[in-house]
């Protein structure tokens, strides 16, 4: 990975010559930028016009567009390497990147001017539980268990659940996360996710956790393994229902919705349910999304019951070779046994820096890098700020690396860099999904793009920085200015525009308050350390 100096050009294929007028929807393009402060300040290469209400732009005006993005820096891919190009332009046609250059395209094309920003591929989270983040945020850091708040989410009406999903999904988009491997905590939550993700143009690989949240904790935290065996028939029923969910929604949203089977973890399954999961995943062909060796307890339990690590057990059912596999957390891996198996099958480790809540320990990011594993930065639950998690992955990982060097010199470890994290947010998960058209800015890739302000207060210096990825270490999701999926804007000028943001926030907050009131009635709130 290298940085291209100013004045050089990086692109693949021939430069397109711009001749004559081009066909595009000027009205749709201006409408989609209506809330952008750049549009108000003549950031567009055309005059602005009256606009419709945010989130109400007709679909016909959002598609079939051809436009140019100008950015202070663009992170592109050329000949298999990530490269930073200054003062670059990206040409988009019909939701696909047509060309990248640091010269100018035709003046007749509409333009989005982001000269103080860095343009990046849309971030990909290999692990989300979308509906359930906000009801737990700020109340589990005591620490308290997140179990009861998550159970109460399942008691909500469909309308209330949609309000929660909308707020959490908006936060993910607002922070630059355009693609989600979504393990909803129940089938109802998975349906809610698709109801919001499809009209908002989100790229998603959704599925419901199996066993779901209503049955999970009794099976997961069992005192007797007979509980697991007795739950088998119920889990088989959930697998069948989730397969039906996946088949029903496959390909929706112009192909952006690609459901996956999403088992909870190996210690909540039996050989019979694992076989059923393997058959369902093979039938779908979209892969598997699972918590994998998420703690030592899981690894010890699976070894005790079935004589193998969770990774070995998955491989024995053929579940690592039939499509993409994303495994979250991996804190309980057997480092002598598991990494070679995972690497052989191209399994992606979804590292979630804020998994379990803020400050809830670290995960083996430096060890996974040293083992040559494909590592993605994932969200998990309580924080939806992808840029913040990107930063935490580097900072937590560097601290863990230093401590490992002092306390356990035998375990291989690699000091993470911001380049590692950005690649783990873009190219690595795209390759894990077997999608060469995602996670990169180059000709032929989908126009899933985000921009981040790197020149302003708090994370910048008032001038375009010489090494802009480092400025991401001082940033958070509020500094994301532009988000688009397939060329359709969802955030513009730092404003969420897929729906009316204040309504989304208000409705989600009302539902969270309802859950908190129930927790208070149950005397759930305990004193926290001061």
From TrEMBL:
Pfam name, any one: Amidohydro_1
Record keyword Transcription regulation present: no
Amidohydrolase-related domain ranges (all copies): 118-488
InterPro entries reported in the protein's UniProt record: Amidohydro-rel, Metal-dep_hydrolase_composite, Metal_Hydrolase, MTA/SAH_deaminase, TAT_signal
Keywords linked to the UniProt accession: Hydrolase
Top-level taxon in the UniProt lineage: Bacteria
Record-stated family: Belongs to the metallo-dependent hydrolases superfamily. ATZ/TRZ family.
Protein name: Amidohydrolase family protein
Organism: Congregibacter variabilis
Lineage: Bacteria, Pseudomonadati, Pseudomonadota, Gammaproteobacteria, Cellvibrionales
